[in-house]
Amino acid sequence: MSNSVNYPELKLTQIAWVVPDIEKSKSLFRSLLGITNFSPTDVTRLQEYRGTYYDELADAENLVTMTYSGGNFIEIIQPLSGKSIFADCIRDNPSGIVHHIAYSTPLKNLETVINKFENEGYKIISSFDTPIAKIVFFDTREQFGVFTEIMGIAEDGEKVVQQMKSNCHKTELEKTRI
Question: Are strands 133-138 and 124-129 parallel, antiparallel or unpaired?
């Protein structure tokens, strides 16, 4: 991809793994890397967020957990049912794999970023809207080995992101006091 003077800034925000067993993966992050501050594991239903998969409405369900560590979010996803890029990934990589790298930008810049990617020949594979961000996935596996996620963060979303970071930092500080 070429650089453009008027191109909105994208911030590296997240690294995500797709795994067959989210609890085993959380345990491995704890034991090997000392990362203990994962959010509670939640079920996400893509249809609740107007999720798409290859331009079709998606009905997939996934288990998801996150944490903030080292300046970035870590996301772990376990596909449960339905068609999705996550289910495809675990089918093709049954032991799990780094699935995507996510970049964020303010929501007002998202269409510019989408147009830039599409003009460079990348197609949106999946998308969904959450209360805090509009999210799109581009298939950049051939170039980068992983999908690229772009998150257009809403104003309220930025507050939530800062709260998540703050909660994770509190957990890290509490560990140092023990």
Answer: antiparallel
CATH number for domain 11-177, candidates 3.30.230.70, 3.10.310.30, 3.10.180.10, 3.20.20.70: 3.10.180.10
Distance of CA 142 to the CA centre of its chain: 19
Could you count the other beta carbons within 10 Å of the beta carbon of residue 99? 25
Partners of 98 in beta bridges: 17
Residue type, 174: E
Whole-model pTM over 0.85: yes
Closest C-alpha to 67, from 137, 171, 158, 150: 171
Distance separating alpha carbons of residues 66 and 90, to the nearest angstrom: 18
Q: In this structure, are residues 15 and 29 in contact, taking their beta carbons and an 8 Å threshold?
A: no
Tell me phi and psi for residue 147, to 5 degrees: -70, 160
pLDDT tens digit string along 159-177?
A: 777 777 776 655 444 443 4
Six token digits for residue 94: 């049954």
